[in-house]
Each structure stands twice: as C-alpha cells, then as structure tokens.
Amino acid sequence: MFDALVHHRVDTRGYEFTSVMEDIEDLNLLAATGEPDLCKISYAFYPFISREYQLLDAGSALGYGNGPLLISRLKIYPDEVQDLCVVIPGERTTANTLLSVFYPGIKKKKIGLFSDIEEMVLSGEADAGVLIHETRFTYEKRGLRLISDLGKLWEEKTGLPIPLGAIAVKRDLPDAVKKSLNQLMRESVVFAMQNPEASVDFVREHAQSMEQSVCQRHIGLYVNKFSTGLNQTGREAVSSLFTLGKQAGLLPDCFEPVFLE
Questions:
Q1: Annotated active-site positions, please?
Q2: 261 within some domain
Q3: What is the pLDDT of residue 23?
Q4: pTM
C-alpha cells in the first residue's frame, strides 16, 4: 500500500516519505512516542494514542475472513484454552484484544515476533499462539492445528468486518495537510491494486515469506475495498472494536474526533 508513495509512482505533491519497516508491536510503540507523522498501527492500539493522532480513511487492513488464528501443535478444545500458555504478537495488538474479548480466562501469555510464533509453539515454548499476516497461510503445512478463528468469532458477534491495522496521522498537522496525506494514501493503494506487478520487488524485500503465492494470498486478503476508504460499514466496525474493548476493560475512551472529517 505504501510502495507508490515511497517510490513516487504517484504524484506526491512535494511530500517526501521515508519508510521505517518494523514489526507491528514496534510500530505501535513508535507511534506512542509521537515521532512519526504517519504510522501503521493496530486498531486496538489507537485509543492509547488518540490524543496525538487521528485515523486516515485510507490504508486500513480491514475485512472479512482475515482475522487472527489461535493455533496449537496439539488438539485443544475451546474450554481448555484458559489453561494454556499463549504467545501473542503484541500486548496492544488487535489480535490480543480479540483473544482477550473471546477468551478472557487466559492467564499466561508471552509476547513473540509474529513471524516467530509458529516456531515457539512447535518447540513447546508455548502451548498455543495467535497468528497474523503470512503465517495464517503456512501453519497447517508445519503440522499446527486450528483452535479458533478469532476473526470468525468477531464476525459472528458483530456481523462486521474485522479492523486490524490502521494508518494514524498526527492530529496537530494542518487540516489541509492531513486531507492531502489521506488522498495520497488512497491513490497509492489504488495504484497498487491496478498495477500489482509494480510493488513485487518491494514486497519481496520486506515479506517474511518469500513464496510468491503466499505473498499474493496475503495481499489479496488484507488489501481490499476498505483499504481505499472505510465507508460507513468500516467506521462502524472500528467503533464496535473500541466499544467491546472498553467493555472488557482493555481500552480507554478515544479522544475525538477519531476520523478525519
């Protein structure tokens, strides 16, 4: 989604973008410093930084059938999950928020880099793990079993797409700048959708999985119509996540307005 901005495949109107590639938990922590003007974050992390940031309408990872997966090397029944040691991709990620909403009894958690979680479960370092990104497509080949599809539970509960990743923009930037950045983000996503071959090298350089088929499935699942604009359904989904997270005692209130007008 950022390729066209970083490499000037669209007219950036004089803006220059320097990209910093990090794990999502590290990006959340980076946003907490207030340093980046634009930053990819977990939707579930936004309430913690809402005083300093707003959410772009473009650039989201939000949709159906793309939620985090709770997996194990053993056959585990849902009523046994609360007794497991579960490795998560970050404390304030959307993945952990969903896990906490649907399995509030889990007491033992540890944090791991998302690309290491499969190995941590296979080695016995944890009983189970929550998978995101490319590892959703590879766990079965490695002999791991699905315990629960957290995204499916969300969809059954709300009927809405699941909000995973958002693009946050500094709240104190001039309104005209924020609107311009939102439009550029949208144009970058549209360009990537219309010219999928243009970003192949950029994706391969930073992907955890080098298999082209996995990369394509990943992009096809996470980059969709909601990535060009949230629309009413997308915003309702985001608000529902914040409400459920607050009701579960996980998330604070958001500083308003959350979205750009």
A1: 133
A2: no
A3: 83
A4: 0.86
